[in-house]
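User: For a benchmark we're assembling, each entry needs the component sequences followed by a predicted structure for the full assembly. Here are entry 17's components. Please fill in the structure.
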Amino acid sequence: MSSFFSTELNKKIKEYLGRYETKRSSILPILHAVQDENDWISPEAVQALETEHGLSVVDVNEVLSFYTMYRKAPPKPYRLEVCGSISCWLHGADKTIAEAKKHIAAVEAAGKPVPFECHKVECLGVCGYAPVALVNKDRHLNVTPEAALKLIEDYSKKELPAAAKKCAADLAARQPKP
Amino acid sequence: MPVMKSPYNGRQPNEFRILTELEGVPNSRSIETYKKHGGYAALEKILKGGMSPDEVINIVKASGLRGRGGAGFPTGMKWGFVPKAPGEKYLITNFDEGEPGTYKDRYIAELNAHMLIEGKLIGAYAIGASKSYIYIRGEFYEEIAWCEQAIKEAYDAGYLGDNILGTGFKHHMDVYVGAGAYICGEETGLISSLEGKKGQPKLKPPFPAVKGYLGKPTIVNNVETLAVVPWIIRNGAEAYKKFGTEKSAGTKLFNISGPVVRPGCYELPLGYPLKKFIYEDCGGLIDGKKLKAVIPGGASAPVLTAEEVENMTMDYEAFAAAGTMLGSGAVIVIPEDVSMVHVLENLMHFFKDESCGQCTPCREGTGWLLKMSRDIVNGEGAPGDAEKIAEVAGKMMGRTICTFSDAAAGPARSIPQKFAHEFVEFYKLNKTAAQEVR
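Assistant: Structure for entry 17:
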């Protein structure tokens, strides 16, 4: 029987299932691993965790819906997550977020896709170097509006991350054949 | 990835270095560096010297060490609450650093996570735990890797395993990664999360020391609390008590943010003058701005006016006497050109976003507080709104499972009370004018 997950991911899932005192404790790390491979956690992935690995859909969805780091919808390849909490806000994080969003919207309105989405997040825990932002898993410090635009430009030139490619391919495969 | 750098390398007075001893030392994160600076000597002293768990607890009690995560509960006493009866017990490190303004625990991992691992081993020996976790927030990608690397090194060196240093002491350690929920910094919420559930806090009693992770006795300690324990064991309780004040013993990591010249993480003795810290150590405010207010212990701490900062010292008692708290040691500096109404709105957004939704006063209250403060910011406030905010916040206190609701009420009561005049100015503005004020 073919699996929803890759061989490598299945191996990781099995390792997590036996790593903690209870099977349930493995849900958070497993969801991180699924997201790392697929860029998001689809309803099909949740279903496959039950049928293939015996994790209840109810238990998994409880975790999935509570924690904000899990993406429940297919994202764009890069996520610029800017901290908007008090210390970063004092250093103009709101301007960084507004400028980045405006830039992405303007370029896309002109018909050119941007592989970026921008979100305000709560405290990222590096408050002395505000504004702080993440691009996927990379941390960036002192992200002024200019620095944010530069990040969007620089990352956009790179080869897409593997998870983003897989996500795009999975979505394309879902489209009904003409 | 940009490397974090501390602007204080070599600048900090030597006598204050306990946790920051490895600041500026090349290759500081390795186990070799740690051992060269006395690392794991405390563990060896305990295990090979035949020190009993009670003796360890008594030293920690005598040192006056109090929880550095925010609550300030005496650490030795907390360890002493664990039942002596045999059976599975757990020690969990709270590395869910997320209180706005706080970035000290990650600094410990940046310097050397072995301080934490050795502290955890000592704590585990004291309470009789054979398994421990480091619960770390998911966004700390680098910090997770540093902790995992240090655990691996400790296993390889024989400090973790079934027969540690050949003494028969058994202990295993693992990292558990969170997924973006501030409430998991609350100890029972953290335990729920570690059990693979929503990170919702549980009613106390029973306290985790009696009934925690999977219903077993569990101690949850902050990173900074545990990381200082090896030094205390090596140098003795009296040496630690030489720092700080009578009731607030030792040093503490103070993390400062906001527009100061030299932001960062500073190790200082408790009782250190707040004004001196801001103006001398941190170089004052940028562009010579004037100070308006300080949030002294992270977003949950009630605000202090510039006037109150004048003679304030940074210890549990002085802050409590001023109606606020030391919290996580996160000093947030607010300059004169920032509106306190906006500060309130920003803080309320945080609390609304992070409320776990379990208890009605908190779930609904944080929403009301955000909506009311947002209306004022948008020029739609009316006289009496500030008082209403403080009143609603007052009714959110002491009525919920955990203290998150009380934390939200901290700024929501103190800002309207201490800066009432700024709210009055806001009511007079029309929508357009209000939105121009920052």
